[in-house]
Amino acid sequence: MLFPAAIISAALLSIVSAAPQRRAPAQVITSCTVPNTAALTFDDGPWVYAYDVSKSLVAAGAKGTFFLNGDNFECIYSDTNVKRVKYLHDKGHQLASHTWGHRNLTLLNWNQIHDEMWRVEEALIRIAGVQPAFMRPPFGAYNDLVREASGVRGQKIAIWDLDTGDTVGATPAESKARYDQAISQKPATIHSLAHETKWESVSNILPYAIQKLQASGYRLVTLAECLGEQPYQWTQAPGVKDPATWKC
Ligand SMILES: *[C@@H]1O[C@H](CO)[C@@H](O)[C@H](O)[C@H]1NC(C)=O
Ligand SMILES: [Zn+2]
User: Fold this and answer.
1) Which CATH superfamily is domain 27-235 in?
2) Where are the domains of the chain?
3) Beta carbon of 141 within 6 Å of any ligand 1 atom
4) Which superkingdom heads the taxonomic lineage of this protein's source (predicted)?
5) Which of 18, 93, 117, 245 has its CA 20 to 30 A from that of 37?
């Protein structure tokens, strides 16, 4: 007996949809979407210069986004780093995940990737009461497994469209020229990558970028704002440091 094709494909569809669903891979974001916004992002902290970055931004009526590690230059649970993270959050900057130990996620298996992601999320929940909605993989290195893990964790992957080059050997003059070059093309938005661990980036390039971008008509907002999205999946009251569990 012959079955009409429609019945066969309906049966096949029900088999397919009964199979376990894999979560959609995380969306990868490079550029902002809200016109005339620029998102200045800072990786690899928390670090000594967090206060200087924040002060420059706040003095200009601007906000930044910090992609934080858990255990990179200094453990995120040190007293000084806990203060820095709280300070950045209190000043209205966006906190995001740069994962725990700045490892190349493309070399890790599924469980290792989740561990790198979860541990810094836990730290940000404990310290600031925020579960980030955005993550940036160290070195910008991701593959399908990383995208799927981020998707499962409800996070989008944030890359950038303007690299200051500050950790790959660009001089301050070259980094400034990259801003000039980008701005001269009059893009609707800009999403720049810099590192809060580099003193020249903080003391020299950042003030230049703020002045130049604002003079060119860009509003300096968080990554979430430049996308018209929420910075966090959820928030709760911050915790109180428990030295027994808040450690790297
Ligand atoms: C990360 O690992 C990939 C291999 O999956 C390699 O191609 C890439 O160069 C590595 N990136 C860094 C920064 O080490
Ligand atoms: Zn980094």
Assistant:
1) Glycoside hydrolase/deacetylase (3.20.20.370)
2) 27-235
3) yes
4) Eukaryota
5) 117
